[in-house]
C-alpha cells in the first residue's frame, strides 16, 4: 500500500488575523490531490487540524475538491486535531458521504478507531480532547500537573489501541499529539506546561507495526524510533515564524511484512510544495522603491519591514509607500538616525494620517457590515485633527 501522509491544513486560517488564506491553502490541497494520482497513492492520510474554525463554505469547498478523487478510488482518512471542532467534522462526514453516496472510501475519525483498508490496519487516535480523557481530568489540579496526568492516560490509551490490532496484518498508527523531543522554529522543546505529550518510550512498538504517522507539529521531521515515525509538517507557511520552513508531503510504502519505506521531498522533488514566501527584512528608506525588484514575489509574499531612516525622512509617507509596494506587509517599524528627529514631527501632508488609518480599517474590517459607518466617523475625526493641525 502507498500512503500520502500530510497534516495541519488549517483551513480557515487568516494570516495575522487579517489576510484570508483560503486561496493558498486550497491551492496546496489541489496539488496534494494531484500528487496522489501522479504517485499512484492508495490512501490520503491527513493527521489532524484540517480546520481552524467553523466555516460551512470552506467545508463544502473541501468536499468538492476531494470528491472526484474518491470517485476514482482514493481512500481518504481525516482525523480531528486540537483545532478541529468535532461537530464540524460530523458535517464534513455528512457532506462527503452525500457526495459519494455513502462511500466506504471516506474515513472521518471521531474517536479512537481501528479499521482496515486493503489488508492494512489503521489504528487512529484523534487529539486527546475531553471525550477521550474526561475520566482522568478530575485527578489533577493546575495545568502542568493536569497535563502530566492526562499524558499518562493518553499513553495507556495508545497501548490499549495497539494491543487490539490483528497481529496477522500490517498496521499504521496515526495520532495528532506532541511527542517529547520534537523541534520547533524556536528550538525549544514543548513542555507539560504547554500541552499533553507522549514520551518516546510510549510510542507504540509491535511486530506488525509498519509506520507511525503524526500531526500537530508544523515542521516535517522524523522521531527516532525502531518503527519509522514521522511528522509530515503542515502544507503552508502560516506566519513569520515559519518563514524558513520548506513545506512538503511524505510518501509511505507499507509492505506486507516489515517496516514502511518513507520518501521525502529531498528524495522526490515533486513532493515539495510551493509555499507562500514570508520575508523579515531591514532596508534603508532610500532603497524602498527598489523593493519590488529585490523581491519579485512581493505581490504574494508577506513582509515584516524595518526601515532605516535618515534625517528628513517622513515616516507616514514611507509607511504608505510600503503598503503600496507590498500589499501584504504585516508590520512596518523604523530605526536609524532620522528616527528621533522625525518621530515627533507633524508630517508635511496631514491627510496621510487619514489615508493610512482608512487603509488599515479596510483591511481589518473588510467583512464588517458597519465598515461604511466606521469610515464615515473616521473621516469626521480626521478632519477635526486636520483642522487643529492647520490652526496650529
TrEMBL record:
<keyword id="KW-0269">Exonuclease</keyword>
<keyword id="KW-0235">DNA replication</keyword>
<keyword id="KW-0378">Hydrolase</keyword>
<dbReference type="GO" id="GO:0008408">
    <property type="term" value="F:3'-5' exonuclease activity"/>
</dbReference>
<dbReference type="InterPro" id="IPR004593">
    <property type="entry name" value="SbcD"/>
</dbReference>
<dbReference type="GO" id="GO:0006310">
    <property type="term" value="P:DNA recombination"/>
</dbReference>
<keyword id="KW-0233">DNA recombination</keyword>
<dbReference type="InterPro" id="IPR041796">
    <property type="entry name" value="Mre11_N"/>
</dbReference>
<dbReference type="GO" id="GO:0004519">
    <property type="term" value="F:endonuclease activity"/>
</dbReference>
<dbReference type="GO" id="GO:0006260">
    <property type="term" value="P:DNA replication"/>
</dbReference>
<dbReference type="InterPro" id="IPR004843">
    <property type="entry name" value="Calcineurin-like_PHP"/>
</dbReference>
<protein>
    <recommendedName>
        <fullName>Nuclease SbcCD subunit D</fullName>
    </recommendedName>
</protein>
<feature type="domain" description="Calcineurin-like phosphoesterase">
    <location>
        <begin position="1"/>
        <end position="219"/>
    </location>
</feature>
<keyword id="KW-0614">Plasmid</keyword>
<dbReference type="Pfam" id="PF00149">
    <property type="entry name" value="Metallophos"/>
</dbReference>
<keyword id="KW-0540">Nuclease</keyword>
<comment type="subunit">
    <text>Heterodimer of SbcC and SbcD.</text>
</comment>
<keyword id="KW-0255">Endonuclease</keyword>
<comment type="function">
    <text>SbcCD cleaves DNA hairpin structures. These structures can inhibit DNA replication and are intermediates in certain DNA recombination reactions. The complex acts as a 3'-&gt;5' double strand exonuclease that can open hairpins. It also has a 5' single-strand endonuclease activity.</text>
</comment>
<dbReference type="InterPro" id="IPR050535">
    <property type="entry name" value="DNA_Repair-Maintenance_Comp"/>
</dbReference>
<comment type="similarity">
    <text>Belongs to the SbcD family.</text>
</comment>
<dbReference type="InterPro" id="IPR029052">
    <property type="entry name" value="Metallo-depent_PP-like"/>
</dbReference>
Amino acid at each position: 500500500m502507498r500512503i500520502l501522509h500530510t497534516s495541519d491544513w488549517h483551513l480557515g486560517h487568516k494570516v495575522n488575523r487579517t489576510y484570508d488564506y483560503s486561496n493558498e491553502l486550497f491551492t496546496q490541497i489541489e496539488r496534494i490531490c494531484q500528487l496522489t494520482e501522479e504517485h499512484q497513492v492508495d490512501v490520503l492520510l491527513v493527521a489532524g487540524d484540517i480546520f481552524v474554525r467553523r466555516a460551512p463554505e470552506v467545508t463544502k469547498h473541501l468536499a468538492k475538491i476531494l470528491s472526484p478523487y474518491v470517485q476514482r478510488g482514493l481512500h481518504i482518512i481525516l482525523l480531528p486535531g486540537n483545532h478541529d471542532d468535532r461537530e464540524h467534522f460530523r458535517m464534513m462526514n455528512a457532506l462527503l458521504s452525500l457526495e459519494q453516496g455513502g462511500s466506504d472510501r471516506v474515513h472521518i475519525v471521531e474517536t479512537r478507531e481501528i479499521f482496515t483498508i486493503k489488508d492494512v490496519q489503521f489504528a487512529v487516535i484523534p487529539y486527546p480532547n475531553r471525550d477521550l480523557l474526561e475520566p482522568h481530568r478530575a485527578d489533577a489540579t493546575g495545568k502542568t500537573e493536569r497535563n502530566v496526568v492526562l499524558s499518562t492516560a493518553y499513553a495507556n490509551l495508545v497501548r490499549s489501541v495497539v494491543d487490539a490490532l490483528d497481529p496477522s496484518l500490517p498496521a499504521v498508527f496515526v495520532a495528532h499529539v506532541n511527542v517529547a523531543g520534537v523541534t520547533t522554529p524556536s528550538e525549544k522543546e514543548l513542555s507539560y506546561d504547554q500541552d499533553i505529550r507522549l514520551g518516546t518510550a510510549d510510542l507504540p512498538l509491535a511486530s506488525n507495526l509498519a509506520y507511525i504517522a503524526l500531526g500537530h507539529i508544523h515542521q516535517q521531521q522524523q522521531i527516532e524510533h525502531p518503527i519509522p515515525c514521522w511528522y509530515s509538517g503542515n502544507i503552508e507557511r502560516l506566519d513569520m515564524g515559519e518563514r524558513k520552513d520548506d513545506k512538503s508531503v511524505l510518501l509511505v510504502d507499507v509492505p506486507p511484512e516489515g517496516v514502511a519505506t518513507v520518501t521525502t521531498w529531498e528524495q522526490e522533488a515533486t513532493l515539495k510544495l510551493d509555499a507562500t514566501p514570508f520575508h523579515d527584512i531591514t532596508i534603508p528608506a532610500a532603497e524602498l522603491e527598489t523593493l519590488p525588484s529585490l523581491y519579485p514575489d512581493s505581490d504574494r509574499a508577506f513582509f515584516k519591514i524595518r526601515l532605516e531612516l535618515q534625517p528628513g525622512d517622513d515616516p507616514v509617507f514611507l509607511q504608505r509607500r510600503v503598503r503600496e509596494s507590498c500589499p501584504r506587509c504585516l508590520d512596518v517599524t523604523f530605526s536609524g538616525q532620522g528616527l528621533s528627529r522625525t518621530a515627533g514631527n507633524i508630517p508635511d501632508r496631514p491627510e496621510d494620517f487619514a489615508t493610512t488609518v482608512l487603509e488599515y480599517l479596510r483591511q481589518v474590517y473588510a467583512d464588517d457590515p458597519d465598515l461604511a459607518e466606521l469610515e464615515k466617523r473616521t473621516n469626521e475625526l480626521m478632519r477635526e485633527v486636520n483642522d487643529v493641525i492647520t490652526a496650529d
